[in-house]
């Protein structure tokens, strides 16, 4: 009899051949939905990590060698091969288990790499609650395809509506002008550079094995908490935190146990973000990671810093709960 571990290994092997191979396997073998969801979560977490490595969200970040300006209106720098890899991982995750939010994010990623036609196709095929957000994105991407999109006018129109709403509510709309002053030069700079060209991509995706190792370490720590293996979780915590297994148990239960929830059902753990680009990290810190922990009736998280302590990884900081 095939075990869950064997089934997941088989899915991992098939996933290497892409979404079409996954679809054929699901049609022929009908694996349990629970296994497909576990596999999908793992691939989606990897997609997020590749996106974090290959993009920036800071308007003032320079375009590093090998990087280019993205297809978003502000031209935030991207490493195109790495972002294309993230998109392929998104496709695999969605083939394993469809999630409308993930599909929506993939549409945004396609816009960032300049593949506006595919972004339109993804947005128009959205199912579920995020389908209502698609029309604006489709309109913008179609305008980019035809060369008629005016990012500066679009931004001004949106912010003017926001300022009007603030003023009607009796609030100061001055912050809106500050946003305009910040965004306008970036939009003009992006316009001068043009759009990225995914069809002309060259070079290999960025390597960051240390970040992946840190993400896996953070995920395993959170999984041990959900499994009630607090002694094992405590072994992953740096001594400087002085947290015993009992301390971890108390903090975890305080975060996740609610009076009105009799049974949280299956608990999912996923690294939503893992990055080395945080201002407070020290030289021995490998990464900052945000790990979502969710049950049927709750959504929480632990935020950790993974550090090199001696010759091994350890959790050197922990923040309990969502921000």
Overview of the molecule:
The chain is of the alpha+beta class. The chain has three domains: 4-149, Serine Threonine Protein Phosphatase 5, Tetratricopeptide repeat (Alpha Horseshoe), CATH 1.25.40; 150-193, no CATH class; 209-320, Roll (Nuclear Transport Factor 2, Chain: A). The chain is 52% helix and 13% strand. It is built from twelve helices and six strands. The protein has a four-stranded antiparallel β-sheet. A two-stranded antiparallel sheet has the order 1-2. The longest helix has 21 residues, at 33-53. The mean pLDDT is 87.
The multimeric state of the shown protein is single chain
CATH class of the largest domain: Mainly Alpha
SSE-based structural type: alpha+beta
Question: Main beta sheet, described?
Answer: 4 strands, antiparallel
Mean pLDDT: 87
């Amino acid at each position: 009899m095939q075990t869950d571990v064997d089934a997941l290994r088989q899915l991992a092997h098939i996933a290497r051949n892409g979404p079409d191979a996954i679809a054929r396997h699901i049609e022929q073998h009908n694996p349990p939905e629970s296994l497909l969801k576990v596999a999908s979560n793992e691939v989606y977490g990897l997609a997020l990590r590749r996106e974090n490595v290959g993009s920036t969200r800071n308007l003032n970040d320079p375009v590093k060698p090998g990087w280019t300006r993205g297809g978003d209106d502000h031209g935030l720098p991207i490493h195109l091969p790495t972002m294309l890899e993230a998109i392929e991982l998104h496709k695999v995750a969605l083939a394993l288990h469809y999630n409308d939010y993930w599909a929506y994010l993939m549409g945004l990623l396609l816009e960032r790499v300049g593949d506006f036609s595919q972004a339109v196709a993804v947005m128009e095929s959205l199912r579920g609650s995020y389908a209502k957000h698609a029309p604006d994105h489709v309109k913008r991407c179609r305008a980019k395809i035809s060369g008629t999109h005016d990012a500066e006018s679009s931004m001004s129109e949106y912010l003017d509506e926001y300022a009007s709403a603030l003023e009607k509510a009796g609030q100061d709309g001055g912050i809106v002008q500050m946003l305009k002053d910040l965004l306008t030069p970036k939009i003009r700079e992006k316009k001068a550079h043009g759009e990225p060209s995914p069809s002309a991509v060259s070079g290999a995706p960025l390597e960051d094995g240390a970040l992946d190792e840190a993400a896996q370490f953070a995920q395993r720590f959170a999984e041990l908490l959900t499994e009630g293996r607090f002694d094992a979780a405590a072994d992953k915590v740096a001594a400087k935190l002085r947290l015993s297994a009992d301390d971890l148990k108390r903090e975890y239960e305080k975060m996740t146990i609610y009076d009105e929830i009799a049974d949280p059902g299956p608990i999912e753990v996923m690294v939503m973000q893992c990055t080395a680009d945080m201002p407070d990290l020290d030289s021995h810190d490998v990464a900052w990671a945000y790990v979502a922990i969710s049950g049927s009736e709750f959504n929480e998280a632990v935020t950790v810093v993974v550090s090199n302590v001696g010759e091994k990884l350890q959790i050197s900081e922990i923040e309990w709960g969502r921000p």
